Amino acid sequence: MDAIDVIVTKRERGTLSREQIDWVVGAYTRGEVAEEQMSALAMAILLNGMDRGEIAGWTQAMIDSGERMDWSALDRPTADKHSTGGVGDKITLPLAPLVAACGAYVPQLSGRGLGHTGGTLDKLESIPGWRASLSQEEMLGVLRTAGAVVCAAGGGLAPADRKLYSLRDVTGTVESIPLIASSIMSKKIAEGTGSLVLDVKVGSGAFMKTVERARELATTMVELGTDAGVRTVALLTAMDRPLGRAVGNALEVAESVEVLAGGGPADVVELTVRLAREMLAAAGVSGKDPEVALKDGSAMDAWRRMIIAQEGDPDALLPRAAETMVVTAPASGVLSRLDAYAVGLAAWRLGAGRARKEDPVSFGAGVTLHAKPGDLVRAGAPLLTLHADETARFDRALSALAGGYEIAPASDPTLLPLVIDRIA
Ligand code: URA
Fold first, then answer.
1. The domain made up of 79-154+169-309 is a member of CATH 3.40.1030.10
2. How far is the CA of 407 from the centre of ligand 1 (A)?
3. Which of 40, 54, 202, 413 has the most CB atoms around its CB within 10 Å?
């Protein structure tokens, strides 16, 4: 087998054989296929696509590059959720303990943020003491204590994806549906969950800017999961505006705790409950209803157990940024648009996100929303609060927000529905 033959097959719009795929993914992981050869192949795949059989083969080869986790020692079904990422998307935080409180185990491997979308691990690390890196035995221990665990993926899980994702990041080849679908699903299948709910975000703050592209990605992932024996469902959900009223690590933890206490913004509660019901149905668990578990304190109890089991202090004060700046409404009327990407970029520039993998994040930085699209606002009333450790960051955040919101005299904003579609 030879890397050039594989590249030329795809360059000429051919179908890669299972042998070619197994060989190239394995040899690349072992360092026997050069980075420039894999980048040429990734570009050929981005331009010419892969069929269903090729995507399934590619996903399997990435799973086979590493270890598979096994939860068969547990006495209840496992359920997991994956979001393609968005602005203010803190749903994993209330969702994992909520689903645990309703009767399924939730072993969830999460990532850190890069660019304008936040990462679940960065959010949880704003809780003093909380530890993201766990061995599989430790994960089992947390699951038995709390019913849910959220932690970092170890290096042994789909190492081919780890290597390929870094390469795609610097070669303009992230936005390929076959490569995104196989990247996400190789990790989720290797993680060993019995069922999976995918939250595929659509809009300016998401990877997928249109409903059509999101539907194609969701369908591809549902097929991959189903073919691998994982009960998989996808929801397409809105990311044209931020989710909730808090964007930024510690700010989002605080909002998640409000949801677990039975309050919180309506959109965060609605999506959390909807995803919880989907996860329980996919896992075949008909326990307590998620809405009840948010009201009766059982989801909060599971959250506290989960945080304590990972050495975090759920009662500790969360970090706060040293400086704040209030952005006021320039006119009276209806907030007709508040663009997710603009708010995500502003939060990133305030210090909530990182530009390079090794950069630290500011836990207290971010944006608080005082109005959501559709709300009436009064000229001079607070619209947003910016939080940062240094005042020097405010100007760059304000330039990210310029043109990112509009106030109309009186109109119904055209927003995507919160849940756009369901694919199973
Ligand atoms: N998330 C992933 O894990 N992989 C991709 O390719 C894109 C988003």
1. yes
2. 35
3. 202
